[in-house]
Amino acid sequence: MNFKLKALAWLAPALCACLLPPASLAQSPAPYPSQPIHIVVGFPPGGVPDTLARILAEKTKLDQPIVVDNKPGAGGNLGGETVSRAKPDGYTVMMGGIATHSINGSIYPNLPFDMVKDFSPILLVASTPNVLVVHPSVPAHNLAELIALAKAQPGQLTYGTPGIGTSPHVAGEMFNSLAGVQLRHVPYRGRALAVPDLLGGHIATMFDNLPSALPAIREGKVRALGITSLKRSASAPDIPTLAEQGLSGFEADSWLAIFGPGKLPPEIQNKLAAEAQRVFSLPEVQTRMKALGMDPIVLGPNALAAHQRSEIAKWAKVIREAGIKAE
User: Fold this and answer.
1) Which residue range forms the structural domain that includes residue 148?
2) Is residue 133 situated within a structural domain?
3) What is the model's pTM?
């Protein structure tokens, strides 16, 4: 082999190496998001959390679809566990709220996740008050009359709930404490089983989510005595609050928020928060939410984190004092 051939043989590997892309460029990740995003809802289709998740899926402009995954069970804990264990890459988030991220930690002794450490707050979306309703046969047309009736018949008046530890349950126990009465708790396995008994007069009262209760209220099938927010709802401004009727400071709203797995990278957390904030700030979306009985909030990660801390402390006290325990 002459000198020139030897030189070419020696240079060939180096030339080939120069033609290959640098390893760092070949392995650089695609811009987020590069695949569908799954939003987990820990409750069945058709409820408020599911509705909000589907609004986000419908209106998003992230160049990738958002897929709603309903994983009902254990008061929302099944969905919470799924997201808490997901890879923190922004492709699995959840529509959580008062149950999964403030109440359940005090109800379930073996909760399979930490409500704070295992999640990254993204957006506080909306709140919805519970509403105290009674069967029309109950001789009480306002809060004062109901309290007088309950005190005259301690332990006789019943209130139904979708189950132990649900937001209507803890609202009822807060009511018992502040009003000084003893409404008797009757837990059901879901709202779908509780409402027929209320409509049939088998239970006297119920704290129900306002969006769910509005149709029956408007049809006169139940009588609304007061809502559990500090101010009246734009969805039902004629229903007074319990606070303005004498239960000062009474507030037991359900709230909905988007969380990702813990240790979500800040750039992904902020991108998701910005897009969700854009969607839930749209005038047509806010109008739709109000028509369904929800009050839009739309606040980012820091505000959601502060709200969650406050709610955990508030409901832990109520649950402890009432002795509420999961079955």
Assistant:
1) 129-227
2) yes
3) 0.85
Cβ partners under 8 Å of residue 219, min gap 6: none
Are residues 218 and 140 part of one domain?
yes
Which CATH number does the domain housing residue 207 bear?
A: 3.40.190.10
**Residue 191 pLDDT:** 86
Helices H, strands E: what count in the chain?
A: 13, 10
Which residues have a Cβ under 8 Å from the Cβ of 293 and sit 6 or more positions away?
A: 128, 209, 210, 211, 212, 213, 214, 233, 235, 236
Structure confidence by residue, pLDDT tens digits, 192-206: 899 999 999 999 999
* Tokens 């399979």 found at: 112
How far, in Å, CA of 12 to CA of 71, rounded? 58
CA pair distance 172, 249, nearest whole angstrom: 15
Q: How many domains does the chain have?
A: 2
Looking at the fold, whether 189 and 262 belong to one and the same domain comes out as no
Whether 281 and 114 have beta carbons less than 8 Å apart is answered as no
CA distances from 109 to 43, 74, 105, 114, 325 (A): 21, 13, 7, 11, 9
In this structure, the answer to whether residues 76 and 120 fall within a common structural domain is yes
What distance, in Å, lies between the first and last C-alpha atoms of the chain? 87
Q: Are 107 and 324 a contacting pair, CB within 8 Å?
A: yes
The Cα 83–Cα 259 span in angstroms is 9
In this structure, what CATH number is given to the domain that contains residue 95?
3.40.190.150
